[in-house]
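Input for the complex:
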Amino acid sequence: MSAISREDVVHLAHLAHIEMSDAELDKMTGELDAIVGAIASVSEVAASDVPATSHPIPLTNVLREDTVGQTLSIEEVLLNAPDSDSDRFKVPAILDGE
Amino acid sequence: MNELIKLSATELAAKLRAGEATSVQAVQAHLDRIAEVDGALNAFLHVNAEEALAVAAEVDAIRAAGGAQAEALHPLAGVPIAIKDLIVTKGQPTTAASKMLEGWMSPYDATVIEKIRAAKLPMLGKTNLDEFAMGSSTEHSAYGVTRNPWNLNRIPGGSGGGSAAAVASFEAPLALGTDTGGSIRQPGAVTGTVGVKPTYGAVSRYGAIAMASSLDQIGPVSRTVLDSAYLQELIGGHDPKDSTSLPNPLEGLVAAAESGATGDIKGLRIGVIKELTGEGYQEGVQARFNESLELLKAAGAEIVEVSCPNFKYALGAYYLIMPSEVSSNLAKFDGVRYGHRVLPEESPMTIERVMGSTRAAGFGDEVKRRIILGTYALSAGYYDAYYGSAQKVRTLIQRDFEAAFEQADVLVSPTAPTVAFELGANDNDPLAMYLNDVATIPANLAGVPGITVPGGLSENLPVGIQFLAPAYEDARLYRAGAALETLLEKQWGHSLISQAPAIDTASIAQEA
Amino acid sequence: MSNYTDELVDFDTALDRYDPVLGFEVHVELNTKTKMFSDAPNAFGDAPNTNVTPVDLGLPGVLPVVNKTAVEYSILIGLALNCQIAQKCGFARKNYFYPDTPKNFQTSQYDDPIAFDGYLDIELEDGEVFRVEIERAHMEEDAGKLTHMGGAAGRIQGADYSLVDYNRAGVPLVEIVTKPITGAGKRAPELAKAYVAAVREIVKNLGVSDAKMERGNVRCDANVSLMPKGAEKFGTRTETKNVNSLRAVEHAVHFEIERHAAVLDSGAKIVQETRHWHEDTRSTTSGRPKSDADDYRYFPEPDLVPIVTTAEWVEELRGRLPEPPAERRKRLKAEWGYADKEFRDVVNAGVLDEIEQTIAAGASAAVARKWWMGEIARLAKAADKDIADLGVSAATIVELNSLIEAKKINDKIARQVLEFAIAGEGTPSEIVEKRSLAVVNDDDALGKAVDDAMAAMPDVVEKIKGGKMQAIGALMGPVMKATRGQADAGRVREIVMEKLGL
Ligand SMILES: [Mg+2]
Ligand SMILES: [Zn+2]
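Predicted:
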């Protein structure tokens, strides 16, 4: 059973914002298909009456008081910036946003 | 070899306290050792000599002055430590072994680093790992493989191969690791060292670069069980910056290790997990495991067999949950705020394409594989079948543990199914590499603690024995682990690590 | 631009044939001291990237921690919207890449919002009440601020590059989502405006948001669809993003109804998409179609643990709820006895609080209205300020009024005293004292002034004696002049009559 098609991987790479060459896409398709084939058995045991566990240790209501703490200096903020303009990060044009 | 580097952390700490050695001497001895062997091992990505010596000198000065300040020093003050390069540090680069973060300087310290600074342990530097901790061999580092000190052609385990190799090769008496699916314990097993994955939340994750948030845990790497107990007590406890950190510190770890070291474990119920032995486990690994069980039994432990029927789904659940969280956690690496920005080769130069080419160039194959797999597992139409099912399996595995812990105080298994494999052996088979974590993954899924202790040699390579305990019961691991350590060393007449061969630095130098 | 059309169908014609269905997503920025998941200041207008911690920059290794006050504010909003409060709820990650989103996911809530199943009764201009059902109100975090540079000023299209300020990243938001609103017919635009106005008023009244739409504290996405009259199945909707003034909400709904009708009339289909609102042309343009890119891959936020609300906690918060604005208005109108128009003017002028305080301080409802809607409103207009910002206190009005009633000052002087009070010269009594503004009631002094005036104008005196009482007015000028305007006109008249034996 081929669970993952090359088209799927093209779409996934787009969602994940990773550019991939044709060769990479081909290789990734084969590998993912094998991996998914090997792990898909989880759905066999996952009966509907089994609750999901998202957090291994159940804690609730870990809340913080609304008190201001230490902020970074502008030098620290921009320390690792690939590009910046005075006190802001600079990014190439965004073609279409919301 | 300088005698100071052969000491365990606890022994070295005692010598420093007694004034028989200075911290500067200890740090320098380890820096010398790094200079001598790390060219061959590549355990360190960054060596922090200047700061380490400065901290050592500060500790020495406090000790020399005596008085209340000297009294107040942490027991491990002045004992050097290595830090897995997944944990952020001010003043040293943090790369996660990825090109993406080449040269990145954190403006803040991880909580565990703040604690290490407060206790004045000189930091020797940052250790190598699989990129973003994804791997079981430290072959997936953007900065070259780390080699196993026992055999330079073998992997040191992963992802924390750098920390394990550093400790196994006497470059450092202590190190910090992180364990998402076995990344502390499996390297510990294949390098003949001790490693502990504490209960999820026992040690703050703040400042550990997230791989899979619901599985990640920082823990100690050392050559003795007692050393790990001291280190976990130092780095553990609630952190208001980590919402998932346990509200109260786990206590009595050092005491438990000391009590276990007497070798007295009468009445301790040890459960052998049926599903984590036998098929798939190398003969030599199984043999060492069986010998350890005999020793424990002879020392008064009650050995029972337990069954965890859902563990066979653990690997599958892990390889759905982990990559799902990875795909989200690693989205922040986009070349906007930090990291190496790579422009697309052709126009248009939109931010979307800059992100795409930055991530294409910055991430290695294994990281990309997991991001794409996780994106798939979470995507519309597949969520229920994959991520949703995996979370249910997680519940079933927790239930298996609950049932097993009704019959046993601790559970036991080989830590890894094989000894260290050869470098490059699994290059083209990611699935084969994933199988290395089959025995360590259930603990991460359930949040329970685990320890690996050296269990002897097979093919002249170390074998690890893993103990698992219920959540919050990390002390039980230290008791059982220290007991087995003592029993084995008594039988052998020496520690396992003392049998490690000399590192043939010349062979690697020639290759390179 | 798939089905962009310049054609519009006249609004009334459109709604003769179609029924509109509305839906709103209103984002409310909370005015907590710190952000939703970090202890950075939640402040507007500071220098770029100064209100950020490692968490707000999404640096490697950071973790979020939930702001308790933001949770409580969210519950308060839920209660004020007549919602159920979830006994247990959690956070989820909404995954999408955008440079204003530091982690490239937004921490939000997905299938378990903190508040759900509520309603709001919206009173339209003519008093008709329309119930809007609330689907949910959930907690999430705001994004940073992008400024597009080069190209057409400030527009994303054609920009050369963009600058990012993360001060706003992580500011707590509550997103309020309505159920589909049917049956509004031609009143849809009016209802849209009134609904957003009501939400804004509620969060302002709760004190949980600064509620300034011009600052983006309250932002509205408006969903519109049309279905043929009598149909039951909703049409395809469009979502007009970031309509950020009450007028714009009204106009955007109006425009989309006219545009949808034109598309449908032409036989084409509405494409499900986002639309951009343009204030200058009062129209929308095509944004981004719904696509695969909207696969947000929500999953439970592993770094945050669930929130459990006990009954005690919720009841304690319910106890903090102020009177709902609509009920308060109804009560005040009855208590004060204003006519419909009078009351509406007071509401529109935004001086309900001021009048209420003035009455509480001892003035009658009529006196309070006279001052706030009269002289104070005039001064505010002249100073180009909001009435509330003039700094007039209720005590000042009450004191002015009692000075008038005691005949210490007259209306004209009172208006001067008010201006001096606004200028900060002190209380009305202090000002009257300091500036010697008290009305001259001293009969000796007044008598002297009247005698002088009568002596100077014998012809006027003759006229008065002859029964021409209005001639008394001619004496007022000199009398006022002699008393520097502080004579009480009524008393002057009495004295003249006494002196002439009339
Ligand atoms: Mg929305
Ligand atoms: Zn939202």
